[in-house]
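Incident log, support desk, overnight shift.

02:14 A customer reports that sequence design results differ from what the structure should imply. Their input is reproduced verbatim below. On-call engineer (initials T.W.) acknowledged and began investigating.
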């Protein structure tokens, strides 16, 4: 499964060996089977005076398509935050859009059942940008199916 993760990153131009080397010793693995542990999943910048000084990544070990998709999501966050290492960084209201888009893209081709649950979860939330993303994603899916 780890190969699927790397292949996806490479296919979409997201793979960066420098970032993998940087985060290797800063990654903590979360037991995805324990629901309470899922709250710790994320990419966390360590800040000093609004400057990114370090980054911690907490992800589940890759064992299936769901954990691949979560790792993709957090890795996309990591890429952005890494680009601000030793620079000033402020979160934006659009922070979740790009990672979620890549996660939806992965799930579209690998785990349709989880994709459906994930979209329902997003649509039940308050983030209008993510809701718009799901609506846009669904409309492109309809176009793709129609043109097959």
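02:41 Re-run completed on a clean worker. Output:
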């Amino acid at each position: 499964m780890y190969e699927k993760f790397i292949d996806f990153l490479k296919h979409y131009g997201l793979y960066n060996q420098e970032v993998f080397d940087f985060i290797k010793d800063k990654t903590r693995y979360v037991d995805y089977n324990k629901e309470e542990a899922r709250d710790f999943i994320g990419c966390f910048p360590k800040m000093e005076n609004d400057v990114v000084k370090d980054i911690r990544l907490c992800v589940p070990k890759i064992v299936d398509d769901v954990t691949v998709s979560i790792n993709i999501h957090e890795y996309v966050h990591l890429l952005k935050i890494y680009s601000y290492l030793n620079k000033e960084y402020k979160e934006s209201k659009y922070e979740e859009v790009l990672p979620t888009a890549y996660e939806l893209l992965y799930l579209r081709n690998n785990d349709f059942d989880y994709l459906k649950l994930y979209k329902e979860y997003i649509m039940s939330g308050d983030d209008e940008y993510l809701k718009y993303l799901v609506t846009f994603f669904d409309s492109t899916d309809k176009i793709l199916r129609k043109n097959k």
